[in-house]
């Protein structure tokens, strides 16, 4: 009988060796409090779990062997733990407060935390990596609530845009490690200047509404707070390659030393991205570099970052004329770009490009002064230089400060020429935060920044068909600008039993000197000074660890941008905007469902709204309106249907209105202006309904199949809701083309499929393969546009331009980690 049992045991040994085991446990802080939502990862192979409402996690179907567990949570230090798995085991993980590490302190002063009375979404490095196939950063944020993204080239590589709650990128405050990214003059954030930044990002927090006080321009639609690479204790090297439709390719190399001698680490990345774009002549050639060196002691951290990016893109920012898209006789009416850029021989000018190099230097320092007091500060310097070059057929020499030239018997008043419009700028300053926690239920932060911007705007003529008196590299204008921006804020959070009381107040002072139109209608140096006070208060009631409700009130003030100032006289300059933001919501974290609902009412005074038109360099033209508002409800949630199947869903319904709006149409028949008065109208580019869905299924270890859907409702291109001035009908030629007859973007619903599979072999820590098929049903739609209506021959004529998005297209990726 013993021999029989021995034989059976011997036969079962291979089965026992391949037994499916589990690792479970609980994630807490050092006080023993659960950390629901903490991320727990197995690094070899790559697996991820999220702690439930009680901080518990579980990994099933594991084979015996050696594993490394990693646990992380915003505001706490990440820890690794090596496990030898031979049976089902319980591994509890305790995270230490991360207050005194650069990875958290540097950004914590500008961020909301778990119970803050603010609407926000956190995205981890793993969340971003799933969608990072080389598209611009806004595309990785497109599934967060109330977000709409656009692409000039049609496929997400090149110039892209982002709107939050209908507010464009000039109203979205963006910081990298607490340092402002928004351009000081245009106020936009151009992620194309930092290609593949996502490959060096550890986490992002997207706030909606005014949110918490931060550095840089005030948030009117939301904030995007980016934290770059944090400490990794072991050495690593990664190679990532993506490629697909429209000649798109991305090559990235990441490497790091890990922690050397317990004190020093060095991380670096090189990236190159190329795409021909979906739109004809919308190519992008992008390069970037990231370097980060850090020195750690027991009570301090010093980190130096260098982030460099160079972009060279063909100009596609004017969009496609409606008559091109509406002409069904064309073979592919969405991939034709008609910009009138041909020379007299009928050839398109090949160097119609935007070329810009930007280098960011950051020095971040954190110091633990005592158990109750800590300091975080940063010095930063950004240098940018570049131009956009364009061909101008038969341009008037008078536009370049010249008189007509007589050559022989000919008077040269116009000529074909090529010009470059340059921007050479620098931005530098200091940010700081002093954090004080006198007791466990009370913490305070005193923070702020002083930043200075210097920008030189100038134009050169680099070629003329006839000399016309223009020599080589003739400079025909130069505008210099300087902007000083000082802010200081104080924030306090006080926990009283189940109640969190929140107070936050910011003072901001601006000085802006620029070259613009003076009171005598002459160009001269001008200056303005503005002072803003932005208070915020809120309250959160914690029912238990899983559920809370909150309410808040915040005030935001925002200055006009450069174009608003330089194109107006002192008597008619646009006014600064004021926003009063009311928010209230409910959040829950459970084992099978986590999510929340948020209601908002944003009341504006003198909001600068888009007219729907663009100027000659693709920037939006705006005007003040005295009374307007945005009100709505946001929903977001994630359902765990089974251990392998999850469904994430977001939806926003909103009303975005202007009261008593006056639109003026130019009447070219008699040179007059025709006024149309609308009692209540919808704000341009503000859909009333947006939503996103992601269904993720993991049929086996290391795999994930995702079906992603996005809905964006109808958007008007201007603020007339497509209404025409009284007595003027649509021009007959426009009626035959539905694109020309309507000044709006149709609603669209698109679907993507994303596949990811990660596995390892003995010599490679992780091999990741991925496939993204976008717009799988080849929906024809336009995500952005512009309109220039006027009156001709007694009829309204719409000159519309749209940005068509690509039909079905794909990107595939291969990632090797060592």
Explain how this protein is built.
With 818 residues, this protein is mostly beta strands. It folds into two domains: 18-96, Immunoglobulin-like (Sandwich); 236-817, Beta Barrel (Maltoporin, Chain A), CATH 2.40.170. Helices cover 6% and strands 58% of the residues. It contains eight helices and 47 strands. It has a 22-stranded antiparallel β-barrel. The chain has a five-stranded mixed sheet with strand order 9-14-15-12-13. The longest helix has 16 residues, at 2-17. The chain is globular, with a radius of gyration of 28 Å. Mean pLDDT is 88; it is low at 4-18.
Using the CA coordinates, give the radius of gyration.
28 Å
Distance between the termini: 50 Å
At the fourth level of CATH, the homologous superfamily of the largest domain is TonB-dependent receptor, beta-barrel domain
Described by its quaternary structure, the protein is: single chain
pLDDT < 50 stretches: 4-18
User: Level of helix content?
Assistant: under 10%
CATH level-1 class of the largest domain: Mainly Beta
CATH architecture grouping of the largest domain: Beta Barrel
Mean pLDDT score: 88
Main β-sheet description: 22 strands, antiparallel, barrel
InterPro entries: Beta-barrel_TonB, Beta-barrel_TonB_sf, CarboxyPept-like_regulatory, Plug_dom, Plug_dom_sf, TonB-dep_rcpt-like, TonB_rcpt_CS
Family: Belongs to the TonB-dependent receptor family.
Keywords: Cell outer membrane, Ion transport, Iron, Iron transport, Membrane, Receptor, Signal, TonB box, Transmembrane, Transmembrane beta strand, Transport
Main location: membrane
């Amino acid at each position: 009988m013993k021999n029989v049992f021995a034989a059976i045991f011997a036969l079962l040994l291979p089965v026992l060796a391949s037994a499916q085991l589990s690792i479970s446990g609980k994630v807490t802080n050092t006080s023993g409090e659960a950390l629901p939502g903490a991320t727990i990862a197995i690094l070899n192979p790559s697996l991820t779990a999220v702690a439930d409402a009680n901080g518990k996690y579980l990994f099933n179907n594991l084979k015996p062997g050696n594993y490394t567990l990693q646990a992380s949570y915003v505001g706490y230090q990440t820890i690794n733990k090596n496990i030898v798995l031979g049976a089902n085991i319980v591994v509890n993980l305790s995270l230490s407060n991360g207050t005194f590490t650069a990875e958290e302190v540097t950004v914590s002063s500008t961020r909301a935390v778990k119970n803050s009375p603010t609407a926000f979404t956190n995205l981890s490095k793993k969340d971003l990596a799933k969608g990072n196939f080389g598209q611009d950063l806004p595309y990785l944020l497109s599934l967060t609530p109330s977000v709409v993204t656009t692409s000039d080239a049609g496929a997400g590589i090149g110039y892209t845009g982002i709107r939050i709650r209908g507010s464009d990128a000039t109203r979205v405050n963006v910081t990298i490690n607490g340092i402002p990214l928004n351009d000081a003059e245009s106020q936009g954030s151009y992620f194309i200047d930092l290609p593949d930044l996502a490959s060096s990002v550890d986490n992002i927090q997207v706030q909606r509404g005014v949110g918490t006080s931060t550095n840089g321009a005030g948030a009117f639609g939301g904030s995007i707070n980016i934290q770059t690479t944090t400490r990794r204790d072991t050495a690593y090297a990664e190679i990532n390659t993506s490629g697909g439709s429209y000649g798109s390719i991305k090559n990235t190399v990441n490497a790091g030393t890990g922690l050397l001698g317990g004190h020093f680490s060095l991380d670096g990345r090189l990236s190159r991205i190329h795409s021909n774009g979906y739109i004809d002549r919308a190519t992008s050639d992008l390069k970037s570099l990231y370097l980060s060196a850090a020195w750690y002691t027991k009570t301090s951290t010093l980190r130096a970052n260098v982030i460099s990016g160079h972009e060279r893109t063909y100009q596609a920012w004017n969009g496609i004329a409606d008559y091109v898209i509406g002409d069904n006789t064309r073979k592919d009416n969405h991939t034709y770009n008609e910009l009138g850029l041909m020379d007299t021989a009928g050839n398109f000018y090949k160097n119609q490009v935007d070329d810009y190099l930007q280098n960011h230097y950051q020095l971040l320092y954190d110091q633990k002064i005592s158990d109750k007091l800590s300091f975080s500060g940063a010095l930063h310097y950004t240098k940018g230089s570049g131009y956009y070059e364009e061909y101008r057929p038969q341009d008037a020499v008078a536009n370049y400060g010249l008189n007509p030239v007589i050559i022989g018997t000919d008077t040269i008043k116009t000529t074909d020429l090529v010009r470059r419009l340059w921007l050479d700028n620098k931005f530098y300053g200091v940010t700081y935060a002093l954090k004080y926690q006198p007791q466990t239920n009370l913490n305070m932060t005193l923070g702020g920044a002083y930043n200075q911007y210097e920008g030189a705007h100038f134009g050169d003529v680099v070629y003329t068909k006839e000399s016309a008196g223009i020599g080589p590299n003739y400079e025909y204008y130069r505008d210099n600008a300087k902007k000083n921006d000082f802010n200081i804020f104080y924030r306090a959070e006080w926990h009283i039993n189940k109640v969190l009381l929140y107070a936050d107040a910011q003072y901001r002072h601006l000085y802006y000197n620029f070259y613009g139109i003076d009171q005598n209608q002459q160009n001269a140096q001008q200056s303005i000074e503005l002072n803003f006070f932005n208070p915020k208060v809120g309250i959160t009631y914690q029912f238990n660890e899983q559920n809370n409700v909150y309410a808040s009130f915040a005030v935001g003030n925002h200055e006009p941008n450069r174009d608003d100032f330089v194109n107006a006289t002192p008597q008619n300059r646009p006014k600064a905007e004021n926003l009063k933001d009311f928010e209230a919501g409910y959040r829950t974290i459970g084992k099978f469902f986590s999510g929340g609902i948020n209601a908002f009412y944003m009341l504006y005074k003198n909001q600068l709204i888009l007219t729907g038109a663009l100027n000659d360099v693709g920037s939006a033209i705006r005007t003040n309106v005295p009374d307007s508002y945005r009100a709505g409800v946001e929903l977001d949630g994630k359902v765990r249907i089974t251990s392998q199947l999850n469904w994430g869903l977001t939806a926003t319904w909103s009303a975005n209105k202007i009261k008593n709006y006056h639109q003026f149409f130019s009447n070219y028949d008699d040179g007059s202006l025709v006024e149309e008065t609308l009692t209540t109208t919808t704000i341009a580019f503000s859909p009333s309904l947006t939503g996103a869905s992601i269904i993720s299924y993991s049929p086996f270890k290391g795999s994930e199949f995702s079906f992603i859907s996005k809905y964006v409702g109808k958007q008007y291109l201007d603020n007339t809701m497509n209404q025409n001035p009284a007595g003027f009908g649509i021009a007959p030629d426009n009626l035959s083309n539905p694109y020309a007859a309507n000044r709006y973007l149709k609603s669209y619903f698109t679907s993507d499929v994303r596949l990811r599979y990660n596995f390892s072999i003995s010599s490679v820590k992780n091999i990741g393969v991925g496939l993204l098929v976008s717009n799988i049903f080849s929906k024809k739609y336009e995500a952005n546009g512009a309109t220039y209506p006027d009156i001709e021959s007694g009829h309204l004529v719409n000159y519309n331009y749209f940005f068509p998005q690509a039909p079905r297209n794909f990107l595939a990726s291969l990632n090797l980690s060592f």
